Amino acid sequence: MRIQRVSSKWAKTAVILQNRLLAIFIPETRKYKMEHLSELLEVYGTVYIKPDRGTYGTGVMRAERRTVHLSPSGQQPDLEDTSADSGVPETREQVMYILRYAKDAEVYNSVEELHAALISKIKGRPYLVQQGIDLLCHQGRPFDLRVLTQKNPAGAWETTGMLGRVAAPQKVVTNYHNGGSIVSVDALFKEHMKPGEMAKMILQLKSLGVKIATQLETAYPGLKEIGLDVAIDQHHDLWLLEVNTLPAIMVFKMFPDKSIYRRIHRYAVAYGRLKRTRPATRPRRKFLSKL
């Protein structure tokens, strides 16, 4: 049987939301339109606008709703410092919208202007708008996690690997292909958690991978592997950002513990994604006959 792939983020999200025990991990997500953009920005302040189909973080944008304080001259403050200055009289508040993509930032005075700018970038393709999560950071840069769950040779789901992805400076996505850095989960967690909480969090992530895979399999029985993109917020709650049904596995070769990749590779061979590698053979020695 061929390995099943599901490209639509919306379709996968809809299946997971059918399970009320797993729905709590899903940030509020809707199909993109201006009304949904406005409503989610009003509630959460920050949202992500992402293509329904796509990989590597390509096309992902972030929008923020900011209340800024303008000076009497009407001059706008710097985007990175929008706090009120109580020592300056006669300032007035104004709601502004900031759109970030790649390393660029644009400012709009209304959600209608923001929507028009997004429409010019979306170009008619199906997009989603999703609640923004205040991510934990590593050395001042936000990170999320990739959790790999595979079918083992016995046919059961098993979480086989996890790693952290740290965003490149000023980038809105953490993906390695967009300049993000790969960091071990232990190195990321020890900045924010005690050893006991670290161990508990890792067990929770492994369990979440199996539960999400099991739920998706109810609709897509040909799945053999999934990669979960998981965020951890400032309260250490887990959020499932999306699920990839063609997850990268070679990246796990980067870690010193090679046993992790060997198991991932062995499982991938068992369900047909990779071919079995033959052990290298020693070249035959050539013997010269004595004269």
UniProtKB/TrEMBL annotation:
Residues 67-87 are annotated as: Disordered. This is Endospore coat-associated protein YheD. InterPro entries: YheC/D. It comes from the Bacteria. It comes from Paenibacillus auburnensis. SUPFAM superfamilies: Glutathione synthetase ATP-binding domain-like. Pfam families: ATPgrasp_YheCD. The gene is yheD_8.
